[in-house]
Design a protein that fits this description.
It is built from 18 helices and 13 strands. It is an alpha/beta fold and about 425 residues long. Helix 13 (about 275-285) links the parallel strand 7 (about 265) and strand 8 (about 290-295).
Length: about 425
Amino acid sequence: MGMCISTQKKKESKGKKRETRLFSNSISAHKFSLPLSSVFLTRAALLLIDLPLLLAAATIIKRLTKSSARNSLSLVSKELYKIEANQRRSIRVNCELIPVTEALTSLCLRFPNLAKVEIACNDYDRDSYLVKQLNDQGLFILSTNCPSLTNLTLKFCSCITDLGLSHLALCKKLVDLSILECRRINETSLVKLGNCLRRLKRLEFKTHLLCLHTRTHDPLVAESWFRDQICCESLEEISLFECALRPESGLSLILGSCSSLEKVRFYTCAGLDDSDIISLSTKSRGLKSISLMISSPLTDVSLKALGSNCPSLENVELAFWYLESLITIEGILALVNGYSIRVLVLRHARFLNDSAMQALSLAAPCLETLEIEKARQITNLRFLINFPRLVDLKINGCHRITDDELEPLIKTKKLHHLMIKNCPRISHKLRKRLL
């Protein structure tokens, strides 16, 4: 009798191992993009899954990076449906949430551990479409039902107002926020984030061109800011696109309270002046990267302040696209005159000529990457040999450069990467050699 029981246990053990192998093989087959019909996994087999196998299933699901693969796998059974929902950390929601309240509530209940959410709406003018978009009540539901939310992106959400932004203060773990072209949100609205700003590490903001709010100075905004003593001490990265900076406005107040910034991007920000850059360089001495698309009258004073106050600055991008720049080569030299700048990008810099390039080659001993775009006065690149560490060079739209200027640089064999684009005087023969 004992022999029979022992034999039966062995058979059951072998049966479970066989089911485990079938399950693992089927998941592996799906991972390698085989059709779902080839996966030999049935509902009957899943009824026999024990705890170790469920843990194995959870581990396998984690390895599936494509949303389509995870969605297909969740359709196999209720067990995998629940596991996949609990494992989901990020989701992207398109427009037309019908109705908004019920749709977001259902979404949060199904995926309780969401950490990254992106909501992209269509930017319609007609009110009939606005009822389908994310609104202030929807942001309240998202803030109260996603306890693990750390990263939120809002695109073209025309129904969100200042009230909706105030709800984000309920997200205790939110550290990354992007607000892109939301029509009813302007620069002043950002102050409504309140205590959420204390926790943010990254902020990206782009104003809508047809913003319904008038961009006027509101003294109550500055009064409430100083009264609440809000400080953005955790903010490490800020990106601003097509914004307006005014004294004691929302963005100016935020920038004035940052002490830990490491990466800054200002693209066509009206009102940005030397005082803003000086204040930024004084308070954020750990700044490592800055990108400026200059559309305001910045001068060499800004660059000198960055060069003297930010010893950790390594990456600098300057684009002069819209206005006649007041910045000269003296400001660039004051910025790079040290041992920290490793990457320098200059776009549409009309002051760049041969003498400026020669001075630059002697002033930046640690420069490793140099990108020059639309500098049409440059005719001589031989001075670039003087850069002791230059390994990456990109030249775009420099019409007066010829093969004779590039040959000495190529022969040094110092460059690891060389890109030549839109330079009509560079011969096809030389281009083939560079491939």
